[in-house]
Amino acid sequence: MEEIMRNDHVFHRDLLKQYPIITHGKGPYLYSEDGRRFLDACSGAVAANLGHGIKEIAEAMAEQAGKAAFVHTLRFETPVLYELSEKIAKLAPDPLKKVYFTSGGSEANESAIKLARQYHKDAGKPEKHVVIGRWQSYHGNTFGSLSAGGDIKRRQVYTPNLLDFKHIHSPNCLRCPFQREKKDCDKTQNWSCTASLEQLILEIGPQNVSAFITEPITGSQLGSVVPPESYFQEIRRICDRYDVLLIADEVMTGFGRTGKNFAIEHFSIIPDIITFGKGVSAGYAPLAGMIVHERIMDGLMQNSKGKFVHGYTYSGHPVSVAAGLAVLQIYEREKILENVRDAGKYLFDKLIDLKTRIPFIYDVRGMGLLLGIEFSADKAGTPFEPSLQLSERINEKAMELGAVFYPGNGTINGQMGDHLIVSPPLNCKKDELDELVQILENSMLLAI
Ligand code: PLP
């Protein structure tokens, strides 16, 4: 193989780090030019949901690139655009049937926020403009999506000049931001995490609030925290009460990651907009978007002559869309949802077992193959010193041993909490999961 020379023209996220150079991938493994193999235990960033090197997807992309690599959706459509939109609409809950494409999840959330604004304006309520998001949630890195999210570290550099979006706390029963006990909430059916949404809407004035954006399962910030059972039903009721659109950010959870096509299905409610990304093309091409409720589309038709004042050059890019189509065909053919449920349970049980051996594992949680492990210094859950960066260290050790995880440290009641997301490809096999857990255990023992 030709020798690969590094140069210093790549503008990395961290200019002081040197990363392994990946030459190819096969299944759940990535291979670097220096002969190392990495088990992709987090599917990149919960994106490479079918693993690597699938020829069928590459060929579908090449075929489309050979026919028409790019057309602008302002002027043209393509057969693959129709095919993929129809497939996604069939997977989405009724009546969310219109599909809008973007390149990435941040753009998808920007689009949803803008559509919500236009919807209310067209309906004669131009003052309904405030977006409410959640602390400890992530919706992307563009100014709008960053403002909607609550990633303290990413927001810090741009504060105070982010957009004036408002926030409530994400639910986290293990470390309740309202210092309540789950059993008390259950008993009284009085949830501070939902009541705080209503309170904030009333403070801002319902006439000013346009949308509430939320991840169904809190991913990168908290490490796969599942909300209490009735959370979303109450959130839906509050949004309906005040004519606030509910945007479910399924960029990380969509297309089977949690064992259902969309994670919001676990909670039996219908959002107004679902945004998606990552899993739709399993990382083979930049592709994301939103699926929109018919009442918003009806509003757009009646009040705006069907015009959404928005769009990107690469919306509905034919090669990305062809990748998405090939990926969804594989999900269906390989009965991926069944595998997620089986493999997810297998992995979850193994991680619970690991918790009995590793004293600094505080919690194991999640759904399907979106699992999270949280660490603490003692059994009472005292977080480690942030400077220890335990999850980063565990991941560094794992990379030395041949696997990569998704470390994170979001803010928990003002303190940093360390977690790892474990999210292997959705078609992973049990022997690969055994290897994953073995490397994880060894890395944890070496890291502390
Ligand atoms: N929303 C969620 C829930 C995400 O996890 C992410 C990315 O991690 C995004 C939005 C942003 O997506 P992208 O990085 O494709 O812009």
Strand content: 15-25%
Distance between the termini: 38 Å
- Identify the CATH architecture of the largest domain: 3-Layer(aba) Sandwich
- Average pLDDT, to the nearest integer? 95
**CATH homologous superfamily of the largest domain, by name?**
Type I PLP-dependent aspartate aminotransferase-like (Major domain)
Poorly predicted runs of 5 or more residues: none
Count of DSSP helices?
A: 14
Tell me, briefly, the overall form. globular
Order of helices and strands: EEEHHHEHEHHEHHEHEEEHHHEEHEEEH
Helix proportion of residues, in percent? 25-40%
Task: From the 3D structure, determine the CATH topology of the largest domain.
Answer: Aspartate Aminotransferase, domain 2
Biggest sheet strand order reads: 4-10-9-8-7-5-6
Q: Determine the structural class based on helices, strands and strand pairing.
A: alpha/beta
Kindly give the count of domains: 2
- The level 1 CATH classification of the largest domain is Alpha Beta
Bound molecules: pyridoxal-5'-phosphate
Main pleated-sheet profile = 7 strands, mixed
> How many distinct beta strands?
15
Radius of gyration: 22 Å
